[in-house]
Amino acid sequence: MTAAGQPGRQEARRDGLSIGAVLAQLRGDFPDVTISKIRFLEAEGLVRPGRTPSGYRQFAPADVERLRYVLSAQRDHYLPLKVIKEQLDAADAGAQPPAPVPAAPQLPRRLVPLGDGSDPAGLPAAADFETGPELRLTQEDLLEQAGIDDATLAELCQYGLLRPGAAGFFGPESVLIARTVKAMTEFGLEPRHLRAFRAAADREVGLLEQIVTPAYRHRDADAKARADEVVRELAALSVTLHTLLVKAGIRGVAGD
Fold it and tell me: SMART domains, alphabetically (predicted)?
């Protein structure tokens, strides 16, 4: 019995894919994935490719499916690797999941669904922390895609919730920020009320920079991949902590 709970899997790997071939298959859906990233996920136990007698990795189709699941769970559902590994371990152990959620990523074999990846306002999941070609939006693009007017955009910039670059363009996350603020205004909040969110985010960025900057200074590609994962993990954990603290605070105000 193999690690994935399927007999004979090691034998099937003799004609498996090289890590380069796996990268080529994944790049279409995950343009920022790298060989270093795949190696990192292997080191963390999220995928376990076979090896040739010469020591080269050989990936079975199930391994590629597993990698797709991990990358989708990170990008679309913002999950830490620890949680994703628990999902995969549950599948390996034959755990029976609840009914699938329509918007969840395709699950390899039998995994517990992750949820629909959207927030209570129906907004898409937050963007991943992968770096890649920078998408730059003009003011007109932002207004159209976010569904806001010039006055609202001016307020968002005034209170630091949006920050255009030196050339006047906005980053790809600006659309989601603007939509989120717009959804919050329906509850009576205004951009000026949300300045504390920007201040808190800036403090978190400063804290994370202290942790990952030394790793980013290394020229080793694997070191950079590890730093990327640390950023992603800490960011996901900080979002979880923030949500729990807000819920706890509101529960305390409500007297529960």
Answer: HTH_MERR
